[in-house]
Amino acid sequence: MEWSEVINNPILQDLPFKIELNKFGKILMSPASNLHGRIQVKLATNLSNQLPNGEVITECSIQTSEGVKVADVAWASNEFINTYAYKTPYPKAPEICVEIVSPSNSKTEISSKVDLYLAKGAKEVWIAYDNGKIDTFTHVGKIEKSKLAEMAQSL
Length: 155
What we know:
Elements: H1 3-8, E1 17-21, E2 27-31, H2 34-50, E3 54-64, E4 67-77, H3 78-84, E5 96-100, H4 107-119, E6 124-128, E7 134-138, E8 141-143
Parallel strand pairs: 5-6
Antiparallel strand pairs: 1-2, 3-4, 4-5, 6-7, 7-8
């Protein structure tokens, strides 16, 4: 299945799941929770306030070598938006991609998403946990705190 088929399929529009595609074009779904949504909004709001020279995108689709992955929150610079506008999915990852860990996520899955987003050009990938902790990764590995936004350690 292609991503355009997913986003244009009326049957898939109002499901209470995050939808992604694997490298074979098969649909992957993970359940949404209210806590997940709360964390997503707090991160998006903080990013928007701290980094005004860009845009925050929730449910940001990115074409990776392993299919279309959807970052829970992403921050894209004005330069990124000027280059790619709102192409769906993005062929390159925005500068910051955030995954909020859900009970259904395995460590391997989260680690894979970090690698995939970095390989597609993200400068930082944040992994947010429901206890408020955020791990930040760059091409050099895990770092103590974000170099792009001061709020990386606060939800």
